[in-house]
Design brief:
The protein is mainly alpha-helical and 309 residues long. The chain has helices spanning 19-35, 39-55, 59-83, 107-133, 136-144, 148-177, 187-218, 236-258, 276-289, 291-301, 303-308, and strands at 90-97, 101-106.
Length: 309
């Protein structure tokens, strides 16, 4: 299960993008998620993320993230619906509670909570997509040009948890082959068996740290200017994805300034799509942000297209 939360190289189109391009794309998605308040625009962003996650073959992993997000969203909806007092369309009036006053549930409060839950799902989905398509070492390699030692520390830190999880699974499997049962026995026996597991894991981690230090010493780390083993090439696919994201961001800013993408929840619900321009803005934003998913579809099905981008 833990492997689902870590990057896995599958040779996908989105994984072949330049780290700067995919990071800029994800940052624009995050900014738009925080910028938009209109539920229709938020649903459009969620649709874009569904397309990209599908292109990254991460439907199963995304389901795990959604279950986690649902655990946060339900309390938000319930608490906000009970405590918000700004709505005028009352659909339920409850008893008077000391300090809190009279409990009421308004249509506006429910709609606002639902919209904020969609925003929460979008943010969680963005981080899910990040884990699916962005290799941590490639991202930290960008930082190494400016702060090599800081990038090295961050790289080691990001590798620590997944590496220890894999080591613990291997050690536990080896101990179970030798007859150690981690499930049976009383609490004292279980703690004893797990203590041995943690002790072996600690020793293995210390050995790994010594190997890393020896490798750094053998490569003369810190003795002079840093050299680069691998260079990330900027290709047409990166320009297309980043260009689409920039165009979508420009349209989103214009829609926010003109009020096409704004929405009023209180005191009464406003209009979702105020005019035709609001619809056109939404469609073009979704289309521009869907460029990576569309290119991924063509990349898988057309070898000539694959070679050109």
């Amino acid at each position: 299960m833990y492997e689902n939360f870590f990057y896995q190289d599958k040779g996908l189109f989105l994984q072949s993008l330049h780290p700067a391009a995919i990071l800029a794309y994800l940052c624009i998605l995050l900014v738009l998620a925080l910028l938009f308040s209109n539920p229709v625009y938020l649903v459009g962003l969620l649709l874009v993320l569904v397309l990209n996650i599908s292109a990254a073959q991460g439907g199963e992993v995304w389901g795990i993230y959604l279950k986690i997000g649902l655990g946060f969203a339900l309390p938000i909806i319930i608490i906000n619906a009970l405590l918000a007092r700004g709505g005028e369309t009352i659909i339920w009036a409850g008893p008077n509670i000391p300090v809190l006053g009279r409990l009421t549930i308004s249509l506006e409060a429910i709609c606002y909570s639902a919209a904020m839950s969609v925003r929460l799902f979008i943010v969680i989905s963005i981080f899910c997509l990040y884990n699916l398509v962005v290799h941590p070492d490639r991202v930290l390699a960008l930082l190494s040009r400016f702060a090599s030692k800081t990038a090295l520390i961050l790289s080691l830190a990001t590798r620590l948890f997944p590496s220890m999880v894999r080591q613990m699974a291997n050690i536990q499997e080896a101990m179970m082959i030798r007859g150690v049962d981690f499930q049976t026995g009383n609490l004292k026996q279980k703690l004893k068996s797990h203590a041995v597991l943690i002790n072996i894991l600690l020793l293995s981690s210390l050995e790994d740290s010594l190997e890393i230090a020896e490798a750094m010493h053998a490569r003369a780390f810190g003795s002079g200017p840093r050299s680069s083993y691998q260079r990330h090439v900027w290709r047409p696919r990166d320009s297309f994805c980043l260009g689409g994201a920039i165009l979508a961001f420009g349209l989103a800013v214009c829609a926010q300034i003109t009020g096409y993408s704004t929405f009023e929840f209180y005191p009464r619900l406003g209009c979702l799509l105020k005019n035709t321009m609001a619809v056109f803005n939404l469609v073009f934003i979704v289309v521009f942000l869907s460029v990576p998913a569309v290119l991924s579809w063509g990349w898988r099905r057309c070898p000539y297209f694959n070679a050109k981008i």
